[in-house]
Amino acid sequence: MVYQYKPLDQSKQEIRLIVLDDGDKTRLKCKIITTSLDLYRREESPIRGDTPPTLRQTFARFATAPSTFKNRKPYHALSYVWGDPTPVCDIDIDGKMTKISRSLGDALFSIRTNTDYRVIWADALCINQRDNVEKSWQVQHMALIFARAKRVISWLGLQAEDSTVALKALQDLMHCLTSVDWKADWSQKAIGAPNAAVDLAETLRADPRIRTAIRSLTERLYWTRVWVFQELASARQNVFLCGDFEAEDIKFSLYFLELWSFRLSGIRMHVADQCGFVLTRFFHYANTHPRFKYQPPELVHILRSLASLDATDGRDKVFALLSVAKDSHSLNIIPDYDKDETMILIETTCALLRRRYVHYVLQDACGSVQRLGIPSWVPDWSAYKYTGRKINLFHPCQGREQSNLTLSSLPKHSLELKLHGYTVDVITEIADSFWDFCPEKIGALYHPSMSLHPWLYHLEEFLAASMTMNQDTIEELVARLLVGDVVQRFENERLGALSASNNPYTMIKNVRDPLVLFNWDSKRVSPRFGLEPEIVPYIREVGKNVDRRDTLFKTDTRMFGRSRNRRCKEKDIVVLLPSVKMPCILRRIGGKGEADDGQERYKLVEMAYVHGIMDGEFFEQNRNPEMRTFTLV
């Protein structure tokens, strides 16, 4: 008979805990108790707004239920991968046999066998998964549940691929890092670290077995879960359990290996882009930065940064991050599992728009694949790729960036979004992408060809005319070079007629590749190729930029642009939207929308760089442009 859950009292912030039984070693047995989160408040917590209750509040809440105090048992919160949800493992809950997933069964068996932790919070058992109302409000308290746990147990899975070797090595590195008095300001480029830790990390790198073991450990599914961010960022203490081996907190060790990878030859071990390494930067910020509990990141930034993480339920891509976001209360997004994923994405987008995150919303919508039939202006963070374009450089709308000029009407639950903006031009020609000319195999060494001399001349001229050498200058140089100085030489030809011999990609590739071989060492590269040392870093930025699969286009008035996601077509229009620091490309789809009012409707296609209007030039050439209302669907 399946275990029947008793309702929880939301007004008392009740939760369930399971108490593991040590009696029968061959099967899982436990009982479920009910308690209140208010009994586990502490003076300091990494969760914003977690302050001790007053005596009056405590008395008023528990005067009618004094038995609740008996259930104040320190508990441990389990962080694990759900995996295959098929119930295959038996567990005895208060005398009722229930089936749970293999992953949860393995975790509970290991906890009971290898630790003395017996009071556990595990979401699959402690939340009635068949009650969407309960699940919704319990999810709102997930961060508090993990914050008030005595420890968070990270279950990495069964022992395999030398996982114990990896955990021991990371644990030794953690001891080394914490055994000396040193501080690492993670926000600065110049970071000091104990020599002993660097030496130990080099030793780990030099051992193929350890290196492979750590790589395998960080490639486990555990590190790809979006819930992991909230669970580990909220934890006051953390242990990692893998098979029969329990390790102390290893997050800082992983963070150290990632942070110092540029100093430790080969220590990246080919997993620098793994979600586990990316997450450690957030964990270190959450656990060490003194302002985290007052200034955590905004939801829009967390959604973008952690878009690559997975969730069994697509709605959890949003719900899992609400509790650790700075603006979660003001956004007023309430987890509700009675709503489908499409509705959650639309409501989240509308909430962000009401907070004036117009640019980020539109940029994210352009960077995601529309897989759910949602409106074009709604981002799908499950299918989003962060482009990293430095938008702060550009000011195409000059002094017209006020966000209140952009939103014509704030959507609530509408499928349409009305925006104010200016029409720039119509796209008339689409070019081949630089990427289309990428050679399949690059030779060991290239020498600058004669065709590069004009390009280098323009490069040097631009540098000589620049007053400051900063990151903004580099970004502007890249854009002007690729779109202006190079592409305009083909303005009398059809852009799509570029060949492998006359396109900018080949020209720049010939310079970039040898620089890569020399690791961008100015002293070694410059004499060999006759370049000024100051030129080398800029050529590197150009090479990085041109490797992207941008598509060139030309407008009716011979403006040149580059679109990032290769979606634009002929007859699309380029528009400027106040507060959005990149021109947008819209596609007219007709006049029928929610109301057949005869207004034209548009689909948001993508953002683009358009040469000649990125610094307010459009308004210098058009003193009083007409502002229009664009209805996006």
Describe this structure in words.
- By secondary structure, this protein is α+β, with helices and mostly antiparallel strands.
- Among the domains are: 10-149, no CATH class; 389-431 and 553-632, no CATH class; 434-548, no CATH class.
- Helices cover 35% and strands 16% of the residues.
- It contains 22 helices and 17 strands.
- It has helices at 55-62, 102-114, 123-126, 132-140, 142-147, 163-178, 195-206, 208-218, 226-234, 251-259, 275-288, 299-305, 316-322, 328-331, 341-354, 358-366, 452-465, 471-486, 504-517, 522-529, 535-546, 617-621, and strands spanning 14-20, 28-36, 76-79, 87-93, 96-101, 119-121, 151-157, 238-242, 245-247, 407-409, 417-430, 551-555, 560-563, 573-576, 584-590, 601-610, 628-632.
- The strands form two sheets. The protein has a nine-stranded mixed beta sheet, sandwiched between helices.
- A hairpin with a 7-residue loop joins β14 (573-576) and β15 (584-590).
- The longest helix is centred in the first third of the chain and has 16 residues, at 163-178.
- The relative contact order is 0.08.
Major beta sheet summary: 9 strands, mixed
Which structural class is indicated by helix and strand composition? Answer: alpha+beta
CA-based shape:
globular
Query: What's the helical proportion of residues?
Result: 25-40%
Give the overall pLDDT as a whole number.
Answer: 72
Assess the beta-strand content as a share of residues. Answer: 15-25%
How many individual helices?
A: 22
What's the number of extended β-strand segments?
17
Task: Give the radius of gyration.
Answer: 28 Å
Low-confidence stretches: 43-69, 182-192, 262-277, 434-460, 462-469, 482-505
* First and last CA, distance: 50 Å
Strand order of the largest sheet: 5-4-2-1-6-3-7-8-9
InterPro entries: HET, HetReg/Transcr_Mod
Domain Heterokaryon incompatibility: 75-231
Pfam families: HET (PF06985)
Protein name: Heterokaryon incompatibility protein-domain-containing protein
